[in-house]
Design goal:
Blueprint: E1 2-6, E2 10-21, E3 24-33, H1 38-50, E4 55-66, H2 68-81, E5 86-90, H3 97-102, H4 105-108, E6 110-112, H5 115-123
Parallel strand pairs: 3-4, 4-5, 5-6
Antiparallel strand pairs: 1-2, 2-3
Helix pairs in contact: 1-2
């Protein structure tokens, strides 16, 4: 688990962790994903992908703010996964799924409201 926090510029920490369910890795992010914290999310995803999962879930359900640089991390992750790794993002609410819908990101990346829904999609 990693944490990036600088109270002078970022009052809400970004805590990123990952865990495995069989060959699926779930990268969970809590807090704010902005230009200061997006690199930590990117590193955690890169570490997970290096272990060659069959599926990757990025859980943003506890993210309070998702900046454009965080969405860029998701786009680059989608591009990296290609056909080798199935990729799903968990996002539900105005801080995460709404901006993703507005820019059309949810049209190219599978977005589900819960980890359970993401796991069900990957099992299908």
């Amino acid at each position: 688990m990693s944490s990036v926090m600088d109270k002078s510029t970022n009052p809400s920490p970004c805590i990123v962790s990952s865990d495995w369910q069989d060959s699926t890795v779930i990268v969970r992010c809590v807090g704010v994903v902005d230009m200061l914290t997006a690199p930590e999310l990117k590193r955690e995803i890169a570490t997970a992908l290096a272990k060659q999962p069959t599926s990757l879930i990025v859980d943003l359900s506890l993210v309070d703010f998702l900046a454009s640089c965080g969405m860029s991390v998701l786009i680059s992750t989608h591009d990296e996964c290609d056909s080798t790794v199935r990729f799903v993002v968990v996002a539900d609410g105005p801080a995460t799924s709404r901006p993703m819908q507005l820019i059309g990101l949810s049209d190219i990346i599978a977005v589900r409201p819960t980890v359970e829904a993401a796991l069900q999609e990957l099992a299908a």
